[in-house]
Each structure stands twice: as C-alpha cells, then as structure tokens.
Amino acid sequence: IFGAYSMDVVTSISFSVNIDSLNNPKDPFVTNLKKMLKFNIFAPAILFILLFPAFIPVLKKMKVNFFPSGVIDFFFGSFKKIKEERQKGVHKDRVDFLQLMVDSQNSEKTSEPNGIDHPLKGLTDSEILAQSMIFVFAGYETVSSSLSFLAYNLATHTEIQKRLQEEIEETFPNQAPLTYDAIMHMEYLDMVISESLRMFPPAGRLERVCKKSIEICGVTIPKGTVVQIPSFALHYDPVHWPNPEEFRPERFNKENKESQDPYAYLPFGAGPRNCIGMRFALLLMKVAVVFILQKFSFDTCKETQVPLELLDNMFLQPKKPIVLKFVGRAHCDQ
C-alpha cells in the first residue's frame, strides 16, 4: 500500500501523469517504473563505474546505462509527448517539477554590474528526463520504506499510537479534511516521525567529497577524498541517544531538540547538500499517517517479525517484508 502511494505521488510530480498503481499494476508507467527501481548497486556495470569513474565517457559511447535501455526509451518518449502537449496548451498551467524544468529551457539573459549580458543555460531534454528519473528513484523507495518502518513502530508501541491518534482527533475533529497548516503544527506527529527516522534512516550512510585537504584530530584528509558518514551508527550512538534501541518520540520535543548535536541526526543529510526532497518526503509521510490513523490502527499479527532484521543495502530495508494488520476504529464507518 505504501509503495503504491509513494509511486503515485512521485510519478505525478515527476512526469505529470496520474496513475493508480494499486488497481492498475499493468499500467506501462507502473511496469517500467518497477523495472527501473530494481537497482542493484553490485551489478557489474555499476561497480565498474564506481571503481573507475574515468571510464564513464567510454561507457557512454558504448551505451552502457544504469537502467535498462527499454525503460529509458519509454520515459524519454513519454516526456517528449508530455512536453509537446504542454507546448500546445494542454495542461500548460499545471504546476509541477516537470513544468519548472521545461520552463528553464526558455533562454533568458542576466546582466552583470558591468553591463554585460550572459544567457542562462537551460536544461536539455536529456537532463530533464534524468532529473525526473532520479526524483522517482530517490523518492519512491525512501518514502515507502520510511512509512513501513513508522507503521511497524506504531504497531509495536500502542500507547504512542494512541497518543498520536488523540492529537489527530484534536487537530481534525470528526475526520475533518486535512490542511497543510494544521498538519505542520502537529508537534507529536513530528516527534513520532523524527524518532522513527532516527531508528530507521532512509540511507545507512552518506558520502561527501573533501573540497580541500584538512587535518581533523591528527588525521589528514586529502582533497578529493570520498568521506563516508555512518548515519545509522550515529543514530544509535548511546552518547547522543540513551537506550538507542528504544522508540522514544520524546527525544524530539522542544526541550530535548535544543540540546541535541545537529550532526548526530542525519536522516536527510546536513549542510547545503542535504536531501532536496526532505520537506516533500516529510509532508507525504505526515499526510499518509494522519489519513490512515483517522480510521484505522496499526497492529501486529503472527507474521510480524519482532524485532526486525535489516539488510545491509544502499537503502535501509528489512530482510523480510513488514507484515501488519489494519484494525478499524470503533467510531469510524468502514
């Protein structure tokens, strides 16, 4: 369910198409997206690129791609069709990332104090397609997995789930329609999601390239070195998080947040190159959780694995699928 939800939303934002992946699993967009998302970092071509990046131009000439060529052809053809429709006035007023990138192709000029005009370089069609595909690749898996882990945490901590439902009822009495401002002011919801992302960050590690040689604690890091930051390990460091294996949303209340080291919590990275989709991902999670908990509660069943065993992948994933059950709330009409 969470996979279908995140796929529908990111596809709408990235390619301006509305799909119902849960009820239409054979839709061409759905099938091609699933092919694209079967990304294996240990595939020979990808390992070769990571180990020998200088050969990327050669691989381009050989038409070696991260994704299957048929998938790339499908999405490029779809993008060209959508772009032509926009140019003809069909859905031209739709506000989405695709339209923003298409608008960047309109060459403009910028003036410097010396009076010299410089044309602004817009994105090419290939660059727009690449950005759209990366948005889907990064957004789908992270949102889907984070929601699954959050549901697991709530199902195994019923008192926290109950308190969250009480905040939801106070904010949206009688299942009132959700509004952006109201959701963004829900403090306990924010605490619950933050703690779940601490325990199960979307990526177990981050990478940064050293811009200049520097010495830290007696260790010299040369310019150009790729530095890996173990965010998962930091999130379980008892120096910063007492009893880190316990699910405690109170770690993120106003008082505790003020004393936290900002670099001990990195679900979306930090600094100027943190995740560009952070706010969007958090909003998707909040909307989904509030909408579901208005009518249902998460609960464990005999197939639920407690505790979870995790895979050591690029993205944090459980070894076995998270199996839970939805229990209808007594006051709701099902």
Characterise this structure:
By secondary structure, the protein is mainly alpha-helical. The chain has a single domain (1-105, 121-328), classed as Cytochrome p450 (Orthogonal Bundle). Helices cover 47% and strands 10% of the residues. It contains 13 helices and ten strands. The protein has helices at residues 2-15, 28-37, 44-51, 56-61, 69-87, 97-103, 125-155, 158-171, 180-184, 187-199, 231-235, 254-259, 278-295, and strands spanning 109-111, 117-119, 206-209, 214-216, 219-221, 226-229, 296-299, 310-311, 317-318, 325-328. A two-stranded antiparallel sheet has the order 1-2. Strands 3-6 form a two-stranded antiparallel ribbon. A two-stranded antiparallel ribbon has the order 4-5. Strand 8 and strand 9 (317-318) form a beta hairpin. Helix 5 packs across helix 7. The longest helix has 31 residues, at 125-155. It is globular. The model has no long low-confidence stretch (mean pLDDT 84). This is unspecific monooxygenase. InterPro entries: Cyt_P450, Cyt_P450_CS, Cyt_P450_E_grp-I, Cyt_P450_sf, Cytochrome_P450_3A.
